Amino acid sequence: MKQLHRSDLFCWSQFDIERNIDFHSVAWIREQGNILIDPLPLSGHDANHLKNLGGVAIIVITNSDHIRDAEDIAIRFGAELAGPAAEQARFPLVCDIWLSDQQEIAPGLTVYELQGSKTPGELALVLEQTTLITGDLIRCHLAGILCLLPDQKLQDKTQAINSVSRLAAIGTIDTVLTGDGWPVFHNGHQAMQTLIQALDK
To answer: What is the reported pTM?
Structure first.
């Protein structure tokens, strides 16, 4: 796994040929139990690295299109699965935890529900008020410039913009770790503001 901007954050990635971007997974390493977000399949090297870092306590799935390899990794490491409460009735996996807006998964990691994306109640996560971790709705296909899912994949663009505006109002965000595309490691709040300005045009 690759070290991110903090000593307790790692990621691993997979290139998607159809979209010509990387997909990413995030691991937050903590003494109380490590948390994975939208985990892709692990290589042997990454699985050993994760094991040496203490394994996995909780796997967060931001939306039903980001199931990826969550079930197999949960079985391998004995982890709990957490998914979006708004999708509970039709979610393809049985989760141990259903996450709603403003819920804390663990101290310092807060859930924000996003509306209007391609699935209801997609989750975004804010880590200690400085790092935003996104699933599908907020992405970055061009390095340094955030964007949204294409309009044709949105259920309601107005709701989607309102959800993004809410996150953009968090002035302490410095880093945006997207599930799809490039990360934005610095000036994340400004990148979010720029996104909102572009959407308002």
So the answer is: 0.96
